[in-house]
Design a protein that fits this description.
7 strands; TIM Barrel; single chain; binds fe (ii) ion; seven-stranded parallel beta sheet; alpha/beta; 9 helices; 260 residues
Length: 260
């Protein structure tokens, strides 16, 4: 499997606290069947020095790769950042400011949980306009999506990719988020599922249960698409496989309510 969203690099954000924890997380990932992951540290959080962050990031990822090699842990670590889109973010978006997923056109983008849908539309449009493709991190967790999941259908039609969190699917964030994540997969809007791992004990990069769950609920082909095929295409900078999303128009009710 390939995991495009992890906070495994230590001492950079609210993810791994130490090199020991990062190694433990790498072992968990590899044992669960993940062969490649992206180390997507938070970026552009309020008050962050983005320039200095880039320098530190390069040092940390190179050191991590050396450690994994010497420890004999078979895990490829690709670069990336989870960019927090708030305020006038897109005006600051210049090539090279942030790390895209493995140097591709795909930018892992998250929003404040209570962001207005209108602002997300504008940002998705601006990112696409800049030549990058936003991979929307865990939209099932956003309040506006829980109220009107059809927004995701619109963002998907605009060209954004949709990344669902493992924890959302498994119910870690509550039943409402779980139902929304489920609806997004049923409506063929999800492009990829990732761990968004933060630690070795909670929110881990172990994808064993996630893979099992996806196979049982949606079938092996969907599990493979979301955990291997599309993540690989993203890291290689290729087009993803986009299933035809089931059309949804406003006024037809909340799509997640179909699955309550
Ligand atoms: Fe994250």
């Amino acid at each position: 499997m390939i995991d495009i969203h992890t906070h495994i690099l230590p001492e950079m954000d609210d993810g791994a606290h130490s090199w020991e924890e990062a190694i433990e997380m790498a072992e968990l990932a590899a044992e669960s069947g993940t062969h490649t992951l992206a180390a997507t540290v938070h970026a552009n959080l309020p008050g962050m020095d983005n320039e200095r962050r880039m320098e530190v990031y390069v040092r940390q990822i190179e050191h991590f790769r050396t450690i994994l090699h010497s420890e004999g842990i078979a895990l490829n670590v690709c670069s990336g950042m989870e960019v927090f889109a708030y305020g006038d973010f897109t005006r600051k978006l210049h090539p090279g400011d942030f790390l895209t997923l493995n140097g591709s056109r795909y930018l892992l983008t998250e929003f404040p949980m209570d962001e207005r849908a209108a602002q997300i539309y504008r940002t998705v449009d601006d990112i696409l306009e800049s030549g990058l493709i936003p991979v929307l991190a865990h939209p099932e967790r956003y309040a506006c999506v829980q109220r009107v999941p059809a927004h995701v259908w619109e963002w998907y039609q605009m060209g954004a990719l949709i990344q669902i969190n493992k924890g959302s699917l498994l119910g870690r964030f509550g039943s409402r988020i779980q139902r929304t994540a489920d609806a997004l997969i049923h409506y063929c809007l999800a492009s990829v599922v990732a761990s968004d791992a933060h630690h070795a004990d909670v929110r881990t990069p172990d994808l064993t249960k996630t893979e099992e769950f996806l196979k049982n609920e949606y079938g092996s082909r969907t599990a493979y698409l979301l955990l291997e095929e599309n993540p690989r295409r993203i890291l290689q900078g290729r087009e993803t496989i986009r299933k035809e999303a089931i059309p949804y128009r406003y006024g037809e009710g909340n799509i997640s309510s179909d699955f309550v």
